[in-house]
Every structure is written in structure tokens, then in C-alpha cells.
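Hi R.,

As promised, here are both runs. First protein below:
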Amino acid sequence: MAEQRSERIAVVGGGVIGLSVAWRLAADGHRIRLIDPAPASGASHVAGGMLAPLAEAWPGEEGLLDLGSASLARWPDFADDLAAAARLPSGLRREGTLVVGVDSADRAELGALADYLAGLGRGVTALTGREARRLEPALGPSVRAALEVPGDLAVDNRATLRALHAAASAAGVEFLAARAEEVRAGQVVLAGSTVDCDAVVLAAGAHSAELHPLLRGRLRPVKGEILRLRARPGALPPPRRTVRGPVRGRQTYLVPRDDGLVLGATQQEVGFDTRVTVGGVRDLIADAERLVPALAEYELAEAVAGLRPGTEDNLPMIGELEPGLVVATGHHRGGFLLAPITADAVVALLRGADPPPQARAADLRRPGGIPCTS
């Protein structure tokens, strides 16, 4: 797209990706209309908020690791800019992450992760259970080993969403409370009307595949159940760091909040069903208690489920689907982590410039990707 300013751009989707893109585009001088029936809701409202590319690294997903690491490096400046623009806290938490293991299989998984990261030149610090408890006294005696990953951070997702909404509003973003039924180049179809513009950015998460035929079958909803726990008077304070790791083979995480913790997350492919199940709640609590026994004394404040937008290779889809239509979706568990680099990539695309080099891994034209028409 040719470089210009004051384009009329419609951003479809008001989660963390849509809000970040809308704010940055408005700050870049564009006239932005964000279309979403309930901005700052959905999967972003439910998320744990981990910014953890190293703790979530997996062999064969080096492109995702590089993308996440590049976005994490942007987060401190992104958070400072956000707090200044919104005049609200950004939600960024800088305490770091512990990846812990309980039984021998879990500890073997930690060792494999440490070896894999070391082979990529990304070292982490191995700790005994006793050393981990010195850092986080709330950890239980069943924790036998840990990896300290101080660079993997977290955000309070709801504080970040509030700040993004405020920053976008202050930058002049117009919010249209409506549900898109279809997107085309330069047009968003609503029930009974259309929004015409110079370009559309599709950032509707798991619902993006319903809005354009080229995305159908390439994006799926992945259900994740989350619990929010509130510390009660007299209970042991929660860990200050994010605590995560395999428990009986299930990935578990505990992400601090000012008044407690977020526990997550189950992972099920059940379509657009967001009902919380008894089994999901049981497993989350049982696994988390094994890591932090004091949670038994906490208040169960909320049980909720969201739908992550998943792709076949776990990489997001960021790029020009056709002239006048840019896609920024498929971020799966990494919406908050990848928000800064995604926003930078979309701004670059709409300027006619090259996105950050690490974003090439998420290009729509990657092997197995979408045959775009641009």
C-alpha cells in the first residue's frame, strides 16, 4: 500500500490485538473506526496475560520463539507509551517467571526445555526445589526443581485492556458497537448497513474465519478455562513471579494479580462453546494446589472460559490478504505477548513499508499459508 496519512481505516475486533492496532494507527495519523459489539471482552478479558516466549518454547517453533522474543523486547517501551497515553497503569509486571517441576517426568521436561534453549543460545537458570522456595516461599514441598526465567514477564490483562481502550479513545479512535458479518477490501458489512473505508484491519480473533472466505478452515477456536483466585486475610501471600510448569503432564500456570492469582488453563477444541466444566475447574485447582498448597485458603472469585484463535502451525497470521484488507489474527495463547510487534507490523504494512523482520514467520504466504490476491 502506498504511504499516506489520514486514511480511513476500519479495525474489526476490539481485543488486545485490535485495540493495540487501532491505538497505534491513530497515533500514526489515521482516522480509525473500531468495530466490535463489546470491546475489551472475549478471550482478551479472560487471558492470563503471560509474556513468556522462553517458558513456552517448543522444538520446531523457532519462528514463534523469535517473534515472541522480539515482541517482548518491545513491551517496556510499549507499556511506558501506553501508560502515558492512557493516563492509567499499563498492567505490566516485571517480576519474572519460574517454570517448576514436581515428579520425575515433569523434571525431565524442564531439563529438556533448558537444553533446548541452551542450544539456541538462550540460557535459563536451573534451581533446586529449595532454591525455588527461597525465591517464592508459597511453593509447596512437592516442587523439586525449577527454571528461573527473569526475562519472561506478565501483564494484568484487564488493566492493560482498560489502558488500551483509554489510549485509543484519547488518540481519536471512534468505537462502533456493532458486529461485523463480512469484511472485504475497503468495506465492512454489518447487519443492514456497511462501513466504507480506505482499508480494513481484521483482528477479530477466533471469529475472523467467519468473516472472509480465505480464512475458513485456517483458523479455529481453542477453548481455555481460567480461574481467578483472591487471597483471603490470614492466607499465605501468592507468589510474586509467574509460576508455571507441567503437573502430571498438564501445563499449569499461576499468574499474580494485586489481589491474588489467575490459574490456567485448560485447552479443548469444542467449537465456540464457552461453558466452564466441572472437570476443568477440578483439574486447575488440583494442579495449582500441588504447586502452591496455600491456595486452598483462597476465595474462588471467578471461573470463565475464552476462545483462543488457533492456527495449524501455532503462528499468527499477519499480512495483506488483498489490497485494502490486512489480517492480524491467529495469536492463540500469545495475544498479549505479540500485541506490540503485531501493531508495528500493521502500521508498517499500511505505510507501504516492510514489517519487522521477525514478523516474516507470521506472513500469510508462508508454506501452508493463504494464497493471497495482492
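And here is the second one, sequence first, then its C-alpha cells:
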Amino acid sequence: MSLPRDDAAVLSARWIEGVLLKRDVFSTVERGRFRGDQGEVDAVLRRLDSVPWWSYLPALHLFGRERRALTLARGLEVGPELLWAGRQALVRGFIDGVALHLAKPSGDVAYFRSAKAALRKLHRAGICHNDLAKEQNWLRGSNGRAYVTDFQLAACFKKRGRLFRIAAYEDLRHLLKHKRSYAPEALTPKERKILAHKSFVASLWLKTGKKVYRAITRGLFNFTDREGGGRRLVNDAPLLIELIRKNPDVRDIAIVAFADRRTGVGLYAFVEADRTALEAQLRNELTAAKGPKPPEHIQVVQALPRDASGHPRTEILQLVAMNQLDLIEPMMNSDTDRAFLKDILESRKNLRDRFNFEAADLAVPSTTDVVTREGG
């Protein structure tokens, strides 16, 4: 399938290809730059030309919902600005920030205050997001503020009727679930009461509609979206981790997913070991085991970045795998993390799909200096 001629002409003249962020049966999403009337800006493109024929109609429906919501949300400054929209492609502004599941704003009360204000703005404009249970759809900007993204399931209302009030209530309840995960001490008595009571529609959905939705998306469409990783991250990664751990030289391992222009979703394994020549051996062992397809990339590192509890910081590894290196800088919490970043940039594997970043541009000159982001 190809884009309509008008869409293709605009993108050919104004879009500069960058990093592929996601590809599934409903769209392809990539980060790049867009030449607008005010000059060239960072942006995100959603396009439908790689969508399979059998999922095209629902994909077009979701695309239309996002286009309507982003049009209505212009100027609210709580989500990406709509820069251009065609019949099967749209370009929205890039928000300098990371998703909630990567940012992990533990104890950040100001973030959740900002998130509640953002939600209030959307609802005043008649927009209910309808997909805020996903942490991927909440962003923490570099300025610390909350933003929402991915409006494919959004609904726009002209009147604040009963259906609007139910949808708005569920938007708020899902936000409060995230607040309970990261800043539970900041929940007010009223917010705890909201968390304890699902709307009738939500309860009915969980008992009926959600089962049908999962049957269609995971069965018919073969679609799973755990943190954007798809079925390989859900099904294959645990088995691969088990196989890799059998090698006595391996101390620890973390596997993350990344969008790949050729295969759709790729897996990137970061293996903690002293012997850097271990990669070929691990790949041979995985092939011999005749289990899941081996990861597209296996990188051996001296030490994985870890949080205060000692768990690998997969949020950093995820951004490395996706080549969104400029978003890592605000997440560097220690000299150990900075040393890891310098080491991993010099030997990272996923170099086919880059957003004009080079290791030299982001080299860490010392353990006390921060990483320099290209373009400020």
C-alpha cells in the first residue's frame, strides 16, 4: 500500500526521516524533522502505508480519531501540536521527554499535579483520551511537566453529557492509578475514593468488551503492546533470558525491544559479563538451542546500569536500543550511570536506524560532566 499522492508529495518535500519508534498493524511511527512554515522542527510522523490490508479499516478509524483530537487540542500545550495532517499520514510536534514507564517519577508530586491540570484542560476542550491506563501514553517532559500522547482512541464531545462524564472520570481514575504507583503518599482522600470505584461502563467493559478486544487484537491481529515491545518481548524474551543465563560467564542480562524497519520489532540483549568476546558464543548457543529467534543485537557490557534496589535500569537500555540517545541525559543519576553510558555508546550495535547521533557527539569527558545533547 502506498500513501495518497498529495500526502506523499508533502512528506517528500518536508519530512526528514529519523528514528523508527514503532511499527504495528495499525500504523508506523517515526521521529524525524519537519519543515514547517516557521522552519525545521523535531517532529513525529504517523503513517498508514505499511498497514496490512486486513487491518486498514480499523487503522484508518484510529487515525481519524487522533487527527480530530489533535486538531481540537491545538494550543492547549498538554500534548503534541498537530503540524500537518493528510488523508493517511499526520505529523505532530516532538515533546522533549520520556514515557512514564521510563521516567519513573517516584515521589514527584509536582509531576502528578501537572498531569491533573493537563487532563483538566483536555476535558474542558471536550476531549477524553480513553487510553491513559498505558504508561506509554504519559510523558514526563524535560521541564518536569506532564504531557499526554497517542490520541488514537480519543473521543471528542460537543456537549458534556453522561457519556462524556463517564469517559472523563475514567481518564482521571487511570491517572490516579499511576499516581498510586509512584507517589501514593500524595493521594488525597477524594482521590482514594475515586480509585476504589470504577464506573459502570468500565466494570462492564472489563467483564465483556475487553475480552472481545483482546481476542481480536491478540488473536486475529496478533498484536500485543507491552511497552511497545509486541509479542516477542512478551513471549520470547523470558525464554531467551533463561537460555542466556545458562552460560557461566553471564552475571546478568536485560532484554528490551526496539522498532526495526525490516522486521517490525527487534530484541536487544544487554549481557553483563567480563569477557567481551562472548557475543558470538551466546549467539551460537541460542541457535543450537532451537528456541525463539535470537535477539537482533547482543551487547556485552562490564556492568549494567542499576537503580537503588539493584535492578537493571531498563529505561536507559530501552532508549539506547531505540537510538534516542538525547533523551538519556536527564536520566543520568550517578557517576556509574555516566561511565556506563560512555562505554555503551562506543560499542552499541543498533546503528542502522539513527537520528543523527554519533558516539563522539555524546561522549562523556569525565565522570562529573553531563552528557552533551546534540542540538541542545
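A quick note on the second one: The radius of gyration is 21 Å. Let me know what you think.

Best,
J.
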